Structures are given as structure tokens and as C-alpha cells.
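Predict the 3D structure for this chain.
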Amino acid sequence: MPGAPRRVAVLGAGAVGTLLGGLLASSGADVVLLDPRVAPDAGDEIVIHEPDGRRVAARIGRAPAPAALAAAPDLAVLAVKTFDLAAALDDLRAWPTTPVLTIQNGVGAEDLVAAARPGVGHVAGSLTAPVERPGAHEVRWRGRGGIGLAPVAGPVGGLVDYLVAAFTAAGLPARRLGDARAMKWSKLVANLVGNALSALADRDPGEIYADPALFDLERRQLLEALAVMRAQGLGVVALPGANVPLLALGVRLPAPLSRRILARVVGGARGGKSPSLRLHLRGGAPGPSEVAWLNGAVARAGAALGVPTPVNDALAALVDAATVDPELAASLAAEPARIVDLVARSPRRPPR
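Done. Predicted structure below.
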């Protein structure tokens, strides 16, 4: 197939990078996971535990850095967290013409790539499959989900078609979408669901939706994000495994009806995996969380457009504060009503 990459380098050997690298390897690509913590080797087997219980083995290579590869790959998959993306782009200077696939949550990754690699082939991806990496040589795929893929820059039409076919053949439903920005903002809306509040209250998303006061904050943050999308002229699009337009419709219903409907589906939407911000905050992971590219991105875009986003602004600030203050994190988990109060009293206000 035109545009099919024979050699693929995956920067970021976490759960997402391991899953996507393993699926591409199972489809015939020569895949290398780049991880500075490992020494180069000739190959390695990883096991993908699929949602239906099957175990699929794929053979990949490992290398500590791009310099360890004998030749430039045909595709670089950027599977690092957004806050590590700038360093990954520095590593890619060795491959100035290699097209990239960005798969980060939130919005902002594509702008960083465009600034660092203007005109170079670029595909954006939005993954809706919940995954975990229980060990260096295995990944647990918790719910089928899927992946949306959209061209961003350069002549990547053939590459997008290849990726859609390869991921679909490997069992990950994939779809080509025409507007990368609408896709990424739609995925951001899905990522907001039961995320920041779950982290702050240290409760499962279903519990957030069962609490009327917490659900009110949840609903308001989503309505703010949808208002920012409208102000940008972006439509809400469905992703494989995530019917975001249906979510948007449910959020816009009167609050009591909206809570009853959404509470039924939110708890199982992540395949039993805790939301990313909760895992980061409660797991004590080093470094910043992704909240700056989720709720923070909504707040920044709202400020630029004159769209009020007080709840997203306050939630982003609270998650950042709780990340560096364990006592605050513990107090909010012990008394979630404080979250509602702190958001209401937040000094942050949208520009007039």
C-alpha cells in the first residue's frame, strides 16, 4: 500500500506506545520502542492482553535513543506525555523528514509539532481504548475502543489510509477523520468526563456522577468546553469507541435528567481503569499532570476567545495545587464538598 511504513520508531514505551507499537508490529511493520532506560537489543516479545481475553504476541525491537538506530524510520509515533513532547521533538532532529503520528491527550501537541517541524508529514491520532502496562513486556487492553486518525500536514494521505487499515486488521477499530482540530477537541471533551473531579475527590467516575453537587461541576466544565468548541467553529465528531456527539447531547439536557442518563454509562466507559489524572495524583507520579492540556487548555482557549470557563480554570488550578501539596489532596478526598466550595470561591475569573 502506498504510504506504508516499513520501519516504525515509537517514542514513549508506556502503555499507549507499547500497544500501538505492538499492533503495528503484528501487522508486519518493523517496530522499535525507544526508551532511554534500556540497552539496544535485537528484538523482544511483548504480549497484548485483548479485551476479549485473547493474548497476542508481537516482536519488537528496543533502543535507548534515535542515535542507536542504523537508519531513519519511515514513521515516528510520538507516544510520550505532552509535557515530555518538547524533549521528544529534540530527539527527532536526527530525522528531519520523518513523518510523525501524535497521540497525546488534550490539545496542544499538534501545535508544538508544527512549530518544531513545519511542513513535515504529520498525522494526529485520538485513542479511545483504555490501556495499562502491568510490565515492561506486556500491555493490558481494558476496553476495545478505537482510534481516530486525521492528516495535519504534508502528503500523508497514503499513510493515514495505511494506519487505518493496519490498526483495524490488528483488532483496533480505526477511522479516518477530515478535521484534526475537531477530532482532538472532541477527544478532549471525552477526556474531561470524570477526570479532574475523580482525581480531586479520589472517587470513581460513577460516584462523581451520583453526587448532585459534584455532577453540577462536572456538567458545567463540559458545557464550557463545548462552548469553546462552538466559538472556534468546531463541530463535535464521533470517534471510534466514543460517541462524543451523544455525550454532548446528554450534557445539554436539564441537569436532573442529564445526571440520571450519564451516570448509567460513565462508570463503565473506561473499562475499569481509573482516569488519568486520578492515577497521576493518587499514584504519586513525578512531574506535572496532563491537566494543563485538558481543563487548562479549555481555560486558555476560552480566555483567548472571550468565552467564560471558570470551572475549568478552577479545576486546573486545584489539580496543579493538589499535585504538589499532599495535605491538600488528602483533605479534598476526605471532604469532597470542599472542592465545590473552592471552585465557587476561586479568585480566577474569565476576562471581561
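The domain at 7-178 is CATH 3.40.50.720 (Rossmann fold).
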